[in-house]
Amino acid sequence: MKRKFPNTRLRRLRSNSPIRNLIRESTLSQNDLIQPIFLIDGDNRSQKIKSMPEITRMSIDLAVKEITSLKKLGLQGVALFPCIQSKYKDKKGSESFNPNGLMQKAIEKIKKSIKDIAIISDVALDPYTSHGQDGVLGKNKEILNDETVEVLIKQALSHANSGVDIVAPSDMMDGRIKSIRKELEKNKFVDTKILSYSAKYSSNYYGPFRDAVGSVKNLGKSNKDTYQMDYANSKDAMHEVEMDINEGADIVMVKPGLPYLDIVNKISENYKVPIFVYQVSGEYAMIKAAVKNNWLDEKKVVIESLQCMKRAGANAIITYYAKDVLKWMK
């Protein structure tokens, strides 16, 4: 008896490149990429980051040159992170809201020098505290939520005063979005957007980043489990996202990236808010290590990783590979 093949042959739509391109469900473009920039004091200074090959800390003047070059490649946004000298650090992170601080000066200079680039500023205390935590410590070394929020408000306002487009609270303190939004409105920064790190997990993928911003030594063997989320949980993320949206977040962040795409997809299916994903330093470092050993094709695996984030529901991706991907796209 002759067997009849089903009417539907799924391989029909995979038969050649033009057909695959026409039916592709998600696309990765230059409009989806955000480059992190690590800042240091001084002029014409750059420092290599051992745990992050090809990524450097740079002084503001060099950062302006780098961002100008990235803009010509089609980059839409940069995320700024400071690495300040130890002498400016204290227990409460007071330098974080210094109007003449590194971050504030960088925002002003970039805004004056480059048109049509979105500037995202990190709002958190770990680069500024002598203990490396994202908040103010109590007598028993616990993180004081409400006291920390008061400092974060001052930090966010100082960035808004400098002209930042998006403030990005990455600290995971309760209620900080509502408090920051209230003060932004009160001070007439009604167009300053809030990118909330809503689903930021207490991940083991952050090591190289902490090295980059100079907090790894201060943090020591301590962890951030009491405020960043347990990586075993997903309902917790949905609760955080819903709260942050209700408190005034314009965009939400999922961090890390590739291991947490189930969270990205759940947020995408349940909320209308834009979603950013952070392909973190550990993800970057692992790819670089594998490429160095000729175990992976760098271009192919990076594009695949970023495309998967888009497929899961990401609107944009903060990635250390932004510059490379823009060049590959050209």
Give, in order, the helices and strands.
HEEEHEHEEEHEHEHHHEHEHHEH
Percent of residues in helices comes to: 25-40%
Structure summary, number of beta strands: 12
Span of the ends, CA to CA = 55 Å
Enumerate the spans where pLDDT stays under 50 for 5 or more consecutive residues. Answer: none
Beta-strand percentage range: 15-25%
Give the overall form.
globular
Overall mean pLDDT stands at 94
**Major β-sheet strand ordering:** 1-4-5-8-9-10-11-12
User: What does the main sheet amount to?
Assistant: 8 strands, parallel, barrel
- Name the CATH homologous superfamily: Aldolase class I
Can you identify the CATH class? Alpha Beta
CATH topology: TIM Barrel
User: So how many helices?
Assistant: 12
- Structure class: alpha/beta
The Cα radius of gyration reads 21 Å
Tell me what the CATH architecture is: Alpha-Beta Barrel
